[in-house]
Write a structure and sequence with these properties.
This is tRNA (guanine(27)-N(2))-dimethyltransferase. One of its GO terms (cellular component) is nucleolus. Pfam families: TRM (PF02005). Belongs to the class I-like SAM-binding methyltransferase superfamily. Trm1 family. Keywords: Isopeptide bond, Metal-binding, Methyltransferase, Nucleus, Phosphoprotein, RNA-binding, S-adenosyl-L-methionine, Transferase, tRNA processing, tRNA-binding, Ubl conjugation, Zinc, Zinc-finger. The chain is of the alpha+beta class and 709 residues long. Among the domains are: 57-121 and 138-166, no CATH class; 495-524, no CATH class; 591-649, Phenylalanyl-tRNA Synthetase, Chain B, domain 1 (2-Layer Sandwich). The chain is 37% helix and 17% strand. The strands form 8 sheets. A 9-stranded mixed sheet has the order 12-11-13-10-9-14-15-17-16, sandwiched between helices. A hairpin with a 2-residue loop joins strand 3 and strand 4. Helix 6 packs parallel to helix 7 (245-254), helix 6 packs across helix 16 (494-506) and helix 22 (664-689) packs antiparallel against helix 23 (692-708). The N and C termini lie far apart (94 Å).
Amino acid sequence: DGLVVSEKMKSSNIDVKIPKSELEAEEKGAEEERPRESDSNILDVSSDYPRDKHISIQRHLADLEKLADLREDERKPCPLCPEEKFKACYSHKLHRHLQNLHWKVSVEFEGYRMCICHLSCRPVKPNLVGDQTLSKMGAHYHCIICSATIVRRTDMIGHINRHVNKGETESRFITVRAPKLPYEVMKESATDVQVLPNHSTPQKTDSYFNPKMKLNRQLIFCALAVLAGERKPIECLDAFGATGIMGLQWAKHLRSSVKVTINDCNENSVTMIKENCHLNKMKVKLNIREEDNDETVGNGEENGDTIEVTKMDANVVMHLRSFDFIHLDPFGTSVNYLDSAFRNVRNLGIVSLTSTDISSLYAKAQHVALRHYGCNIVRTEYYKELAARTVIAAVTRAAARCNKGIEVLLAVALEHSVLVVVRVLRGPTPADDSAKKVRYLIHCQWCEERVFQKEGNMVEENPYQQLPCDCHGSMPGKTAVLLGPLWSGALFNTGFLRRMLMEAVQYGLDEAQPLLKTLVCEAECTTLKHFSTHSPGDENKQEECGVYIRTPNASAESCLVHGKRKSEEVLRGAVKRQRAEHSAEHPPFYYNIHRHSIKGMNMPKLNKFLSYLSEAGYRVSRTHFDPMGVRTNAPLVQFKTVLMKYSAPTYVGAQAEGSVHLPGEIQVRQEIPAAAANKVEAAELAEDDKSGVTAAMLTQSYPTHCAAD
């Protein structure tokens, strides 16, 4: 592989000044000095010292043509083929040969192209017919990193990928050494972080930073700030630090209330985290634990401005230490880290996780969801809430295996991720209560009505009877599908969300405030006009997870000192009595108003439709899962009734919103009492007039007038 341009020119007989006898002698000596090697796909002849790159590795196609231009004749040979394979030709023919035979099948890496080479760089197996040896010269690629020769293009691509996975991306050739990429400084929430230019591609960078996840980071910060107000100091862990932006925001704003630990298993990411800590004037306590040696480097005393940086696997660091707050944000699913997270998390602590495997959670890859979460899901109109309940079900099972229960504080499904925040309740009783809330869902595929399966182990003769709709009786075959297991409990805690909103206002997190207001309305199942951020009644009754939480208007006597089991036992009786005073939890799932619209009818505005449902006596609110979604406890039949009642025909442009003809089943239900009233009135008129003709005429004409009215 150590061939350079001058050597190649000699082997291709381009330098005509050298006699043929000398060339034959030189080639014969080279064959005698060449060691006998095994016939394999990869021939590693790397060395420790840098050298010139092989002529088959070029940046542009024109560079290959320049090598052929070294010969002054009109006919130019191919620099990568022997004379026996490709004879010298004119420039246009050579250009076509280089482009089609060498350049199109090349392997690209960091701006360079490793073209296929047909020279005698790699020995081939001797043929039975000696004359055919030269015609079957082995084609191969030269690796830009380790100078190996590889026959197949797919093997070459895999060879380069193995180098990249090992972190070996720097070439040993002098001319290919890439300069160190400059850092970019990104600022978010008064925190500066250094990132690489390719920070937006997680597979190709050690400092993954996604600006689109800013809202996700703000919600997690608000949850941590609420927990920091309950007890101080708390130990919190960012298990997948990357650039360390999240842990830096925690330490910079909450100061002495938190002890921050940022972990990452990548050495380059740990270096980046340390540099970002110094950039934000934070002291670093480095704790790197590897297989053979443990190393602890402290750059200062432990205080509010000190961040501990660890280089371990996330499962290892959560098994070794206990934390009050743990956040998991891996690339993809988080199910591989749930058992470790719940193993040592403290009682009444918080575990938050961000799942970015939306292709499986949003039912685009159903087999992956079944493999990761053990859950059967299909694409529905409420697929985002289905994804959140799928993740919570997996969290519940992982916590129950550690004899812990959960209380869901927050579940948000955004465009690129699903965020779930739960509080941990220690003990087998909370674990059993949480496990009972994991149920199967019966989903009708015709009308998209849905209902959670009833509790109990007995098999029902006809499970379709649990559905409010009658699609199974009117449609042939099977009409429903069983989804799950899913979390059937509440997705939000109103008191916790209100305190998160207060923290967002205090720290000026403008992007999180509108979403938190929507979540509070959704948790209470009320419209925005009835929502109040500062409600003294709600603040005095903030009971979460079976314990009292300190609030601004609550007295000191009603607050719980966390960690004392006697206080918990004394207050459990009062908690059970107060639970009846709280409003009922929000109804599960939502309906999309566009999904159930009527063809040829103009729907009412969404806010007006919410008021119409509320006037009909149902609880109703908007949902963050779907901008056109309506969360309500109304059955689907009544939902469609109200929607069709206040829809106007499309062809009547200036018609005011009012009642219209209701087709099908709903129209029949409203015509029955009207027809009965018409018959009674016609009978009375017949008795008065003593004329059956008048009564018959009224019986036929009166319903028409009623419909017209």
